[in-house]
Design goal:
Largest sheet: 6 strands, mixed
CATH architecture of the largest domain: 3-Layer(aba) Sandwich
Distance between the termini: 18 Å
Number of domains: 3
Radius of gyration: 29 Å
CATH superfamily of the largest domain: P-loop containing nucleotide triphosphate hydrolases
Helix content: 40-55%
Strand content: 15-25%
Number of helices: 14
CATH topology of the largest domain: Rossmann fold
Order of helices and strands: EEHEEEHEHHHHHHEHEEHEEEHHHH
Shape: flat
């Protein structure tokens, strides 16, 4: 097997650059550059030289003999100065050593999976952790990366194995003329497992967390949608004008509120009809966005918005009240009432999105959980041979979730999400 190396820290220039090496030639790579192999798992200061003897840098080196390493094989790290030239020079020196090559995206983590250092669900959690942009995304992903989901999946698989063993035992000790008996605990345990799968499948999927809560600002022309949109984003993303119909297309921007991901959408004004073909296209797109929304902030006449929309009065800085009982009365110009709106949005989003530690499954995992749940059905089949097949199909789905049986295209897709050096 090749020995791989890559820069695992941020792109240079930086104060420190961390270069990872993994594979059977890791120790030799350190000896070639540093002239010695340091004590295992202890930092050591060394001068690094290339094959010609030219000094490359003075760096900290670490040696991790396998298999108790991140990848399950011999590993090494070089903590050098993070300048572009230094990183490039060390990379050239490593590439010149026979048996070493630059790593591909996700190759370190893929080796960790292949060597049993983590399962597929943990690897997916790690990928999500690396791509997390909000606090809630980080908290949910770190739970999966640390094995929270894997332990749950593994527990369900183990319980299926126990149920299968009970069926096999009943079949083994039955005579041709006897009806085999199962333990009294079998049926309650079977039903409880099915109910637990239902609970997870009823929860929001992980993709909801990645996509964010979609909040659409809707209403007639000149209702203050763009002003409120800019106030929430604290930017001039949308053009604001007293002229009705300024917004002709959909404008959307992602933003985090209290660590929760949102996508705010400003839309064209809605009215009964228009002779302007471009405005009509904008209105059609606005209507489509309203249908896609998780939350609609309605800025038009009270009661004219879609069912479930939040009634918002946006001109609290002006005299008079347009709505009798708006959910929020605020001013996009002065910011009055804006904090109350954002706090309400955050509370509502928390009830929609997955929660840390709650076991949010991604689409692939949910599809396989659904297969397992469908195989189990509402009850075990009266024919124990067929009931055993139900349980076998369920175990097969969990094996695929954990990566015990995984196709190369699934692995390529997952590990291709990782950066080079991870």
């Amino acid at each position: 097997m090749d020995t791989i190396f890559a820069l695992s820290s941020g792109a240079p220039p930086a104060a420190i650059g961390v270069i990872r090496i993994s594979g059977p030639g890791s120790g030799n790579a350190l000896q070639c550059l540093a002239g010695r192999l340091p004590p295992a798992r202890r930092t050591s200061l060394a001068k690094l030289h290339d094959a010609s003897g030219d000094l490359l840098d003075e760096a900290l080196i670490l040696w991790f003999p396998g298999p108790a390493t991140a990848t399950g094989e011999d590993c090494a790290e070089i903590h050098c100065h993070g300048g572009r030239a230094v990183i490039a020079a060390i990379g050239r020196a490593l590439a010149a050593i026979p048996g070493l090559r630059a790593a591909e995206a996700g190759e370190f983590t893929r080796r960790a999976f292949a060597n049993g250092r983590l399962d597929l669900a943990e690897a997916e959690g790690l990928a999500d952790l690396l791509s997390a942009e909000t606090e809630l995304q980080r908290a949910v992903a770190v739970s999966a990366a640390e094995g929270g989901l894997s332990r749950q999946f593994g527990d369900w698989r183990e319980r299926l194995l126990i149920l299968s063993a009970q069926i096999e035992s009943a079949l083994d000790f039955s005579d041709e003329d006897d009806v085999p008996d199962l333990p009294d605990s079998f049926l309650p345990a079977y039903r409880l497992l099915a109910q637990e799968l239902d609970v997870v499948l009823d929860r929001p999927g992980l993709e909801r967390l990645k996509d964010g809560i979609r909040v659409v600002l809707a209403g007639p022309p000149n209702a203050g949608k763009s002003t409120l949109f800019n106030a929430i984003l604290q930017s001039e993303a949308a053009i604001v004008s007293p002229m009705a119909g300024t917004t002709r297309d959909v404008i959307e921007r992602p933003v985090a509120i209290a660590g929760i991901p949102f996508v705010f959408v400003d839309t064209a004004g809605l009215r009964d009809h228009t002779a302007d073909a471009i405005e009509q296209i904008g209105m059609d797109r606005a209507a489509g966005e309203v249908l896609r929304a998780d939350i609609v902030l309605w800025l038009g006449q009270q009661g004219d918005g879609p069912e479930g929309a939040w009634e918002i009065e946006t001109r609290a800085d002006e005299s008079g009240s347009v709505k009798d009982a708006p959910r929020h009365r605020l001013s996009g110009k002065t910011g009055e009432g804006l904090e109350g709106l954002t706090e309400d949005l955050a509370r509502t989003a928390s009830s929609i999105l997955p929660k840390p530690g709650a076991g949010a499954a991604n689409q692939r995992q949910r599809e396989l959980l659904a297969i397992a749940r469908s195989a189990l059905g509402d009850a075990p089949h009266p024919d124990l041979l067929l009931a055993a097949e139900q349980l076998r199909q369920g175990r097969s789905a969990f094996d695929r979730i954990l990566g015990n049986t995984a196709t190369e295209d699934v692995l390529d897709t997952l590990f291709g999400r990782f950066c080079i050096g991870k």
